[in-house]
Amino acid sequence: SGGATCPSLLLEPSRTNLVTQSEYLGGFFDVSKGVINYNVTTAPDGTNSAGKYIVNNGESANSPLTAYITLSPNTDYTLSLFVKKADYNTANIRIYSVETGFSTNNFDLSNGTATADQIEDYGNGWYRVWATLTTAASVTNSQIQLIRNAELIDGTSGIYIYGAQVEQGSYATSYIPNHSGGT
Asked: If I label 69, which of 78, 136, 144, 156 is the partner at 20 to 30 A Cα–Cα?
């Protein structure tokens, strides 16, 4: 075998990424409180396709990159995102429904930790972080957010982001790229 190891299978349930344009995040998220500069650093897949999210100067330190998404009642959903330290050390992601409240995962990119241990090291400074929410019996308003936390907002500093995913289920599966609806 020349040192080859045994083949392995990845056994995961079949899921769908509900985030349209999962790598062109400005096509899915509302970027009115900031900007995403694209193709600025090497993404976890080895291509030069990751973006840098920068909050506009004068906005709140907690200005979210927000997307509105339709969620079904009484269902588990998991939001995941690849993040890497650019200028900021900390941030958080949130999956939210008015009726249920929210599930938040705060993460520290300087040491690779998260409040709920929902973080995976992908190497080269990249981490995949996730948060899970079980929706209520009725759902009328749902959002997913990347929120910058309490560091200087100067209009140039930011955080690297790549590959957003929202899927039905109580844990994150392997990343599912989705390029529907645009670039």
From this structure: 156
